[in-house]
Structures are given as C-alpha cells and as structure tokens.
Amino acid sequence: MRRMPSPSNDPLRPPPPRRIGWMVAVLLILALLALGYAERDRLSTWIEAWTGRAGVSPLTASTPQASNSAPAVASSRPSHIASAPLQLPASTAMLPALGDSDAFVRRELGGLLGKPGLAWLVPHRLIVHFVATVDNLARPMVPTQVWPVHPVPGTLRVTGQGDILAIAPDNAQRYTPYIRILTAIDPQHAARLYFQLYPLCEQAWRELGHPHSAFNDRFLAVLASLLQAPEPQGAVMLRQPKVLYTYADPALQASPAGQKILMRMGLENERAVKAWLRQFRQALLTQMQPAASASSPGR
C-alpha cells in the first residue's frame, strides 16, 4: 500500500508558517482587541505592519458537491482591482467529484488548447496541480512535481563561463512553441472555463490547507504579481553557486518564482505572455460583479 505523504513533506501543500510568527500574531490580535482596535480594515493594517502578512477577512465560498455544484461565491478585495468585494458568476455546470474530474477537465480543455496543448498537460490530478502551482507562483519556488504541465524540454541555455555567465539569447526558443499555444487561446473562452471549473478549484484549495480563504483571491493576486515581473534589458547575468543557476542581480533573485520563470523566457516572450494575461485578467474582471452585501444599506 502506497504511503501517503505527511503535510510536512507534501509538495502540493505550501510550507507551514513558523509557530513563533503565529504566536506573535495571536498575541497582537488580542492586544488590539483589548485596546479597542477591532475594526476590520484597521486591524488588517496593523497585522500586516507587524507580521508582513495581510489580515485575512471572512470569506463566503460554497463547497462544490460531488456531482452537482452549487454557485461558488468568493469575497475578493485585491487593492489593485476594486474597492468593493467581487462576486464570481455562479457556475451552473454539472461537475464530477474532484477526485474523478481529470477526464472531464481534459475534455473541456481540449476545445481550448487543441491536441498540442493537451499533450503538454500532466494527465493526473489536473485541478489540484493547477491550484497548487498558482499558489506557488507567488512563493520563492514552484516544485516541478506539482506542475499541471510537463516542463519545457532541455535545460537552461547559458553563455559564458566562470563568474561571467548569462542566459543565452537562443534560450528563448525553447519556450516559443508553448508561448504560441498560450497566445492562441481566446482569453474570453479561458475566463468562462475558469468560472465553470471554479467550484473544483475552490475545493482543491481548501483540501490543500486553506479553509479560511478563497482561491479566487489568490488567483487574482498571483496574476497581478506576474504582470509586475521585471523586464531585464540586455544580457541577464547568472551565477552558479552549486548545481542550479541563480540571478546575479539580488533584486531579480529575490523575485517570486512566477516572475523568475517569465524572465527566463526572454524579453519578447515575457511581454507576449503578459499581454495575454492582461486580456485574460480583464475578461475575468468584466464577468465579476460587486458583491450585493457590499452595497446593502446599513452594512
């Protein structure tokens, strides 16, 4: 019988927070409540200032059923998008259980990606791998074993030697076929499919250890992070302290994993991906509406 990974070594789960950090946060919250600073927005500001983490506000998101998904509603308030919470369109699709969803998801993606795109997908646990990868794109690294797609063939092409290393200009060619697959996708179609499958994404998000937040919040935040990726001009210098390469520029090396991936693609490819992501993000936002509770009298 296959041994199930424990939460501490499961690559699909984010690294657990340090216990000391959470103890400080709890003590801080209690102190703020005692001082009368229980108003939510001010409390979030204080928590973020002390811990470096945004305060988590209550969310309402329906848990999808095994075969008949209820409408998924997520309270979402990214500061770069809108001042009021956003509500996702209700999904009316008859969805399978998350554990049995691979065939259904591949069938739906077939009309979006075509045969070359389907061959790029990892065939198992697609929704879970997608959700875990989205989460990790804003973290320091994305383990390849949780990707929903196969890695780009080959290895990073480098020019130079010793302490003078840079990403080779022809390294961008490795990504070209996959950039073409992505940019050929209709952003409006992709947005509709995201909303259709969202109840499954929300269930996977909760099962991966996030019971008090909505996946859509994380998704929008990660899209914003990717669009803010630096665009290095000229040669991108590297270092090789051990086996893996790192960016020589400390600022680039400190970037989230998703931004590092974009920068490895080459400037032209990075801009092409960003252009598509902007259209996709806009397609998402135009179909989201301010939550009714945000404008209710007396709220």
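^ that was protein a. below is b, sequence first then the tokens
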Amino acid sequence: MVDPRGLRFAATITAVVLSVALVTGNPWVLLAQLVVFAVGAVGGVRRAPYALVFRRLIRPRLGPPATTEDPAPPRFAQAVGAVFAAVGVVGFLTGLDVLGYVATAFAFAAAFLNAAFEFCLGCHLYLFIRTTTARGARA
C-alpha cells in the first residue's frame, strides 16, 4: 500500500517537469521524465525517484496517512505516462514537434489533474479496464 500524499507530491513534480518540457520543447527534459515514469512503471511507485524524495524528506515531517492506496493503479498510470513521454520524445527528436507538444500536453494534463484535484486519470483508466475485463470474463 502507498501513501496517497506521496502520489500527489510526485504528480506535482511531474507537472512542473512536464510544463518545463512544454515551454522549452526540450526533448532531454522530457526524456528525464520518461525515465522517472519507467522506473515507477517497472520498479513500482515506491521505487520511483519522486517517491524516494517524498519518503526521505517529506513524510517524516508528516503524521501517518489517514488512508493508503493500492499501488497497482498508480503503477499503471506511470506506464501510461511513459508511453506519452516516449511519443513526445520521439516527436521532438524527429522534428515532428507537433507530436512532441501534443503528447507532452496530454501527459501534463493528467499530472496536473492528479496534483491539483487528486484525480488520477491513469488510475481511473486502470480501474475501468479491470472492471470491463472482469465483466467480459463473466459473460
């Protein structure tokens, strides 16, 4: 189980990094965020760099979380973010800047929704897929 405050912290940092990538069109900034997404998707959200910062520097100053969350939906969200970041990096590096900006903007929008409103778009997509595939298996 994971602390939802850490997930929101990570989404805030992610939104800042993605906004820098959007403003500058810098593929290397986006590539760095892609690596962060990939670590979270492959290694789990507890091992993601922003989660480590939260756990070591911020969480000790806070009380225990009121609730915890299943790490599977945020891990899926990290994978979705990695896909969008990868498409953005490819777009920027191949001269298809529109593709780079659009993919980065989608990733930014999802991170911003999580950071500002605690609405994890990738998590909801994960739950939707799980629900629809579970229903399909029963039919």
